[in-house]
Amino acid sequence: MIKKLKKIFAIAMVSVVAVHSQGQDLLANQAPIDRKMKAVDSVALNRLIQIEQMASPAADLYQDWENHYAHRETALPDSFRIDLRDFCMPTDSRVLTSNFGARWGRQHKGLDIKVYIGDTIRAAFSGKVRVVRYEPGGYGNFVVIRHYNGLETIYGHMSKHLVKPDQEIRAGEPVGLGGNTGRSTGSHLHFETRLCGVALNPALMFDFRNQDVVGDFYTFNRSTYPRESAQATRLRGVGGSASANSGEDQLYTTNANSKRNTAAATRSNTRFHKVQRGETLSSIARKRNTTVSAICKLNRISKNMRLRPGQILKYN
């Protein structure tokens, strides 16, 4: 009886081991299939996300995609982190002519950077072109791009558009050419950075004199934004800590600690004059020992152009 029970037990154990082995084989065979399916699912999901982003960048911040209005303010988040790593400076010009903030009794919603007619203007980040329009009483020829990092950037007063609405664009690709169109008294780029339609000081993110962004990320906070914006203007705006004295030559050599920028500025023979209140082309020409014709030719302006205080002019 005992021998018989032992035999039955042995047969049962062999059966259990066999079934268990077959189960392990099935699992082992299924594992590569599961991994492949997960990979396929991941690729498909990423592709769907990519398609959705291309259709409407930063859709979690913006409710619609519209090709007509330049900007429409909506509720700002209390805090939002903006990725600045995939960037390109919109222009290689280092000369700022007007700050963000109060100007002539109204709010100036961007930075003005000195460029010349025909200079290439480039996309600051990758994204999708939302607006390409001409506004005679304001931006002139302008472009609005919505970026994957949540920002919208505006490029104003250009002489020519080089993009179309709904066009996908990568950081550094041309969007237009520098100009003097719209409400403008001299060729320059008006550059805005907006979040949910609300203008933020570009100097918080871009350092034009150093031709760089201020860091890998910028975190917007409602409570600290006013103080941070004012500090950014002091550091990186017109009249900031890296500029020359007011009324003197405005050859912005940027940060004194930047050997590369200092060397580049030293090699340049170009000199600039910052227009003071009441000055004319004739008085500037006499002060700088040159002629009105020479100044007009260098800056591609007419002799009867109205000068404005703070405007930057080449004089040799």
Structure description:
With 316 residues, the protein is an alpha+beta fold. Helices cover 28% and strands 25% of the residues. It is built from 5 helices and 19 strands. It has helices at residues 2-55, 225-236, 259-267, 281-287, 292-299, and strands at residues 79-83, 96-98, 101-103, 106-108, 111-113, 120-122, 127-135, 140-147, 151-158, 160-161, 168-169, 174-177, 189-195, 198-200, 206-207, 212-213, 217-221, 272-274, 312-314. The strands form 6 sheets. Strands 2, 5, 7, 8, 9, 11, 13 and 14 form an 8-stranded antiparallel β-sheet that branches. Strands 6-12-10 form a 3-stranded antiparallel β-sheet, with no helix packed on it. The chain has a two-stranded antiparallel sheet with strand order 1-17. The protein is elongated. Residues 1-6 and 242-268 have low confidence and may be disordered.
